[in-house]
């Protein structure tokens, strides 16, 4: 039994969750772990001097729990309970590869996670488009006025910059302004290539 762990990271509202769900529906034996499920409760998230809740930093997340969840899945993916049904025509050797897609905005800046990835994708958006999309979403707690410019976007740039300066990190940057179909087609083909390599 082999496992393939795919990171789908990047900018807020970049289309990570949508892409992950579509991939899950197309790939055999595929599960998703979402970083959003590891946010600390609001009471444990720090507030800065401007009154902004600092959600877009690693300290706002239970990262160790996330690593543990991924490692547990890797140990026994078949018992995770959400393995998709096998398509009838799937050849036997494909059944022995299990795929985990981990999606979230801060995947590649936490060292213990970096030894787990088989592939890393990072969705990007230009500032204006990201801000526009973010303004259409409802968050709990809600974004306060100035929050995007004061916290969300600067943290995205900070972590993206850290990533780009890490020469040892192989990341496939994706343009989040492309159509969902185009992004899905590209990532799906890429994952299939990885699957084929694992089966050889």
Automatic annotation (TrEMBL):
<dbReference type="GO" id="GO:0005524">
    <property type="term" value="F:ATP binding"/>
</dbReference>
<keyword id="KW-0418">Kinase</keyword>
<keyword id="KW-0460">Magnesium</keyword>
<dbReference type="GO" id="GO:0019363">
    <property type="term" value="P:pyridine nucleotide biosynthetic process"/>
</dbReference>
<keyword id="KW-0479">Metal-binding</keyword>
<comment type="pathway">
    <text>Cofactor biosynthesis; NAD(+) biosynthesis.</text>
</comment>
<keyword id="KW-0547">Nucleotide-binding</keyword>
<dbReference type="GO" id="GO:0005829">
    <property type="term" value="C:cytosol"/>
</dbReference>
<keyword id="KW-0662">Pyridine nucleotide biosynthesis</keyword>
<keyword id="KW-0808">Transferase</keyword>
<protein>
    <submittedName>
        <fullName>NRK1 kinase</fullName>
    </submittedName>
</protein>
<dbReference type="InterPro" id="IPR027417">
    <property type="entry name" value="P-loop_NTPase"/>
</dbReference>
<comment type="similarity">
    <text>Belongs to the uridine kinase family. NRK subfamily.</text>
</comment>
<keyword id="KW-0067">ATP-binding</keyword>
<dbReference type="GO" id="GO:0019674">
    <property type="term" value="P:NAD+ metabolic process"/>
</dbReference>
<dbReference type="GO" id="GO:0061769">
    <property type="term" value="F:nicotinate riboside kinase activity"/>
</dbReference>
<dbReference type="Pfam" id="PF13238">
    <property type="entry name" value="AAA_18"/>
</dbReference>
<dbReference type="GO" id="GO:0046872">
    <property type="term" value="F:metal ion binding"/>
</dbReference>
<dbReference type="GO" id="GO:0050262">
    <property type="term" value="F:ribosylnicotinamide kinase activity"/>
</dbReference>
